């Protein structure tokens, strides 16, 4: 786990240093993200979906994680109402409190803590727990910001355009073929997928901003919900129903405790909501994860 944290920190630091030293500009960053979202991550999702075991216990893990995230979003919504915060800030509380960085950051944490087999399951977990909910939440946020009108057609269109979702569907479809696909077919995909984690962490580093810790009190409230309340709900559920943690539930605990989703910042900015606060939750949540993730792992062991 310590080696995984060291690798995560190194790749993020290299990305941040490249930004500070002006070694990478917006154009290069756009190409990097395009490669990541359209090629590397879909290859990882397809390969993981085809090879990872999917069973009822796994689906229960996904459903429980979604419920914990949704409850956290509702809790933060009521806290925002109690604090009499404006609509812009309330939306940040709900969105950033309910969606976590389960793929870019969660994958290397899980891989380092539990191994390659659970890393394959993370890519499926991410689509069910984060990717598909985000496809619904995104249009809702934009409609509340007056940018678009929410419709199921818009959600379906968003999913149909998502390379990650399409890779998930293709991976699930290939599982249904009545014969085993030889491993050599996946060699190029596996090579492409191996680039996803370092590129994703590098991209996070490029997007980081430590210029000012604005609205630190509000940032602390959001991060307390996302990184403490949500995993605490999952922890309590497992201890009450199972009595102890298996590795599959430990994977879920790591994922639910991840900091807010990077893509959530883009949606909130596009809708005209409090983008600075959203960016703060991502940046400082990332730093906080190096403390909270080992803590949750220790408590679940």
Automatic annotation (TrEMBL):
Has UniProt tagged this entry with the keyword Transmembrane? yes
Record field: transmembrane: 6-24, 31-52, 58-79, 91-110, 122-142, 163-181, 218-240, 252-271, 277-297
Entry keywords, A to Z: Cell membrane, Membrane, Transmembrane, Transmembrane helix, Transport
Q: Which InterPro entries match?
A: Mem_transp_PIN-like (IPR004776), Na+/solute_symporter_sf (IPR038770)
Per the record, the GO terms for biological process are:
transmembrane transport
Note the superkingdom of the native organism: Bacteria
Localization of this protein = Cell membrane
Bilayer disposition of the protein: Multi-pass membrane protein
An example GO CC term for this entry is: plasma membrane
Q: Does the keyword Metal-binding apply?
A: no
Q: To which protein family does this belong?
A: Belongs to the auxin efflux carrier (TC 2.A.69) family.
Annotated PANTHER family: AUXIN EFFLUX CARRIER FAMILY PROTEIN (PTHR36838), SLR1864 PROTEIN (PTHR36838:SF1)
Q: Which protein is depicted?
A: AEC family transporter
Source lineage: Bacteria, Pseudomonadati, Campylobacterota, Epsilonproteobacteria, Campylobacterales
